[in-house]
Amino acid sequence: MADNYPxxxxxxxxxxxxxxxxxxxxxxxxxxxxxxxPLVLRVVQKxxxxxxxxxxxPKDVDELTPGELVKxxxxxxxxxxxxNGFNQAEHDKVSSLKSAKEMLDALETYHEGSKxxxxxxxxxxxxxxxxxxxxxxESIRESQARFQVNINALERLGKKIPQDEINMKxxxxxxxxxxxxxxxxxxxxxxxxxxxxxxFAELEQFExxxxxxxxxxxxxxxxxxxxxxxxxxxxxxxxxxx
Length: 242
Hints:
The protein is mostly helical.
């Protein structure tokens, strides 16, 4: 299946960063893209190579050996690789920065916030995850949408919750009326590995059966009331004739 995100303008189709909500996706894809050239990726992640002379002072460019010049050039290759993954708005945020690492660090702060802000957001989202429950009157499908927003936000901050933990949270979030289905799912052999969307689909199917059962019960009650009313009316008519 093709990615829904656009690619940048390069022969190697760098992933394109266009907005905050695709930053986490972009970052992961860009690392994969750069990993074809480990020394370029190293410059992005750790910063520029520093070359010192015999006195321990940084060398000028014209003092570099041929091998050092090759490594020195990796920064420009890294900058170009990142630039190929920006739209104009993202380009304008970091174009004045000299190193690829500075560019990536600046983008991370812009899209994810400072470390303290990121920690606060993560704590808030984890609290929401831990307290997730179906709201009164909320359907399974509605709760799934709300739950997915939380999961997506956590992943954008780099928090990947294990699949088994996600699935158990979903099962613990539904009311007691789902107990039979929850027990069945908990005992299934693949409950720790199946996607939580499958768990929601199973719960939604059970929810439909519950609703159908309630409708049958209502119809049966209405029919019983009609029969009682008809019987009462017939009895009254016989009594009046006597």
